[in-house]
Amino acid sequence: MEAAKILNEGKAVSLTLPGGAEQRFHAIWLRDNAWDESTRAQGNGQRLITLADISPATRVIAATADERRLHVTFDPGAHEVSYDLNWLAEHAYDGFRPRVSGWVAPEIETWDATLSGRLATAEFATVSVSDAALGNWLSAIRRFGFAKLSGGPVKSGALLDIVDLFGYVRETNYGKIFEVRTEVNPNNLAFTGLGLQAHTDNPYRDPVPTLQVLYCLENSATGGENMVVDGFRAAERLKQEDPRGFDLLSRYCARFEYTGSTGVCLRSRRPMIELMPDGELVGVRFNNRSASPIVDVPYDDMDDYYAAYRRLSELVDAPDMQVSFKLQPGECFIVDNTRVLHARRGYSGEGSRWLQGCYADKDGLLSKLAVLEMQGERTR
Prior knowledge:
Layout: E1 5-7, E2 12-16, E3 22-26, H1 27-32, E4 59-65, E5 69-75, E6 79-84, H2 85-90, E7 121-123, H3 124-127, H4 131-144, E8 146-150, H5 159-164, E9 169-170, E10 178-180, E11 196-199, E12 211-219, E13 226-230, H6 231-241, H7 243-251, E14 254-258, E15 266-270, E16 273-275, E17 281-284, E18 291-292, H8 299-317, E19 322-325, E20 332-336, E21 340-344, E22 353-360, H9 362-379
Parallel strand pairs: 7-8
Antiparallel strand pairs: 1-2, 2-3, 4-5, 5-6, 8-20, 9-22, 10-22, 11-21, 12-20, 12-22, 13-19, 13-21, 14-15, 14-18, 16-17
Helix pairs in contact: 4-9, 6-7, 6-8, 7-8
């Protein structure tokens, strides 16, 4: 380990981290991210101070490094702090990071119809008792935005047991649980036997429910197969074919609205393809049934915007993008509603088809997964 070097009159420190990369860290960043007892609560890691408690004149006046830690003294106050070098390596920010608009996080894998041969599926009885099996299943949801679960009880409300594995139900105007079967006067086309184009649910909410679970209780009707489409892969294909169209759908907001229930009027204004400021692809909202007039696109761009909208719709409908399956009683699937679109083929009046659905949020799932991964690391 090379000795730490103080740079720019104490405004930064340079050192070689595990792996051999030389990285620079600003003094203000190091002080803000200190883990000593006066800066962080040792039980939960939350900061005990605000940025206003850190002088803007903070400088490093001494810095040494051994094989495991960086030791720093700050001025004013001669405040001494040490940092784990592996932690610094994980949180290094030095260096040029080129980002192409539409990049996806490394833990995500986009897919098309070829995913059919390797669907992520688990057994309810197994994930209910095995942390390793549950972690693998949740990891697949993070990776693909979609997974199935089999062998669940065939009883009303069983889907709540699925959500209990990782988080909490998000209740909406449709209730804690909503029934997906034919109704005489439905307040949503999902409650008919009609086929439905692949879509994300509730785009008229802000924020949208980020997870949806659909659980099968009966399915003897002809037709009614479920389909899923990776909205991220569709966005990637659109960008490859039509970069300007991708830019328009990510730069301008679409509008969505739902007023199908008494006393409910939900509206949102968001792009169909949502990017973070650094270009990361983080969301897709696509639901033709709930789209309201698009008025945020300038006149000169509207033709090209609609051409891109049409092409995205064609990609969503393309057979080589779709994974289809027919749920059996006791089976369910879960989708990342900010990414994966789901659809249904129409079904006949003979036989019966009864699914129950509910919403949950991805933060609970990712929290549970992170805890399981940390436990796994500690036991290795």
